[in-house]
Amino acid sequence: MKVAYAYQNPDPEILRQSSSGGFFTRIASAVLERGGVVFGARFDEDWKVVVDYCEDMSGLAAFRGSKYVQPRVGNAYRDCEAFLKAGRTVLFTGTPCMIAGLSSFLKREYANLVTMDFICHGTPKQKVWESYLKGLRKKPEQVSFRDKSQGWKNFVCNAGIKEVFYEHPYMQVFLSNIALRDSCYSCRYKSWKSGSDVTAGDFWGIEHICPEIDDDRGLCMVVVHNAKILELIPELNLCKSFSLDEVVKYNTLAVDSATRPVISSLFVSMIERGRTFDLGYRVCLGKGLFWRGIRFVWRKFPGLRK
Questions:
Q1: What is the Cβ-side half-sphere exposure of residue 39, based on CA atoms within 13 angstroms?
Q2: Using CA atoms, how far apart are residues 246 and 268, in angstroms rounded to an integer?
Q3: At residue 69, what are phi and psi to the nearest 5 degrees?
Q4: For 169-205, what is each residue's pLDDT tens digit?
Q5: How does DSSP classify residue 226?
Q6: What's the pLDDT tens digit per position in 11-70?
Q7: What span, in angstroms and rounded, lies between the C-alpha atoms of 37 and 162?
Q8: Are strands 113-118 and 198-202 parallel, antiparallel or unpaired?
Q9: I want to staple 165 with a disulfide (CB 3.0 to 4.6 A). Which of 28, 84, 171, 238 is the partner?
Q10: Which of 113, 110, 116 lies closest to 93, judged by CA?
Q11: Distance in angstroms (rounded) separating the CA atoms of residues 258 and 178
Q12: What percent of the chain has pLDDT over 70?
């Protein structure tokens, strides 16, 4: 029977830079120490998200932290295959659908491949993020979707505007589910079906399940699917375990797809027609009476959605 483990990186600086408990850095470091290669998502010079790889510790920083944007995979699968055929140990990290896609691309199993996915909320369409960036007064000097300066649970989004997550417009759009890819609303890879070797994610609900280990600095929930993980890092000491039923109660996206709001089609159509992110945000999530009236009409008269 599978269980969920709690993990927190002992290095306070790595923990600060990580979205949750820093498990990615721990497993990635073990692979790099073996002369391996690590694939992950990073921002490029235009703040678009791409899948890339690194071969030394200095490259890991770019992969830390959540990126709530659909990444461009590019040649990552092909590069991964080349490293595997050369005998290198490879850690490939990504969304559950990316891990399933990699398996389909490779068409065979590799003993030297380690795959890690995460509990996925869903990924916003690339056009949504590009529209948001275009609407900023100036290009951001840095982007961090999960700044822990006010704590792990009350995280801050620093992306052109620096605000606590429930007030930041991009995070509100993301968390309201109105901008996700169509496949995210009926994901085939929930309930650990991606074929990954290990799944990690925020251990939401730990304050209820085991409050004595919750210090609000970030904690990972880790579900091991393949013994090769424990062979790779036998000293990991994943000793605190919990039943999956217990933790899924507070982490429902591990088993359930995001729900598609009716208003999502309006928001996406506005972005695809070239309307600004700010206008789409106001129309679909604005709190004023005028914006609420628009949403009421949209919901009341389905014919307007065609």
A1: 33
A2: 36
A3: -150, 145
A4: 999 999 999 999 999 999 999 999 999 999 999 999 9
A5: S
A6: 999 999 999 999 999 999 999 999 999 999 999 999 999 999 999 999 999 999 999 999
A7: 33
A8: parallel
A9: 171
A10: 116
A11: 10
A12: 95
CA neighbours closer than 13 Å in the CB half-sphere of residue 266: 23
| Residue 63 in tokens | 């992969």
- Residue 112 in tokens: 């030297």
Q: Which residue has the tokens 């995001």?
A: 258
Q: CA angle, 214 as apex, 165 and 208 as ends, to 5°?
A: 85
| 293/296 Cα distance (integer angstroms) | 5
Q: Note whether 100 and 194 are within 8 A (CB).
A: yes
- Furthest-apart CA atoms within the chain: distance in Å: 62
pTM: 0.93
DSSP 3-state of 88: coil
Burial label for 207, CB within 10 Å (0-12, 13-18, 19+), is: middle
Residue type, 297: V
| Burial class for 79, CB neighbours closer than 10 Å (0-12, 13-18, 19+) | middle
Length of the chain counted residue by residue: 306
* The one-letter amino acid at 157: C
Provide the 3-class DSSP secondary structure of residue 132.
helix
Q: Do the beta carbons of residue 63 and residue 38 sit within 8 Å? A: yes
Q: How many CB atoms lie within 10 A of CB 150?
A: 12
Q: How far is CA 8 from each of CA 70, 222, 236, 276, rounded to the nearest angstrom?
A: 27, 10, 10, 40
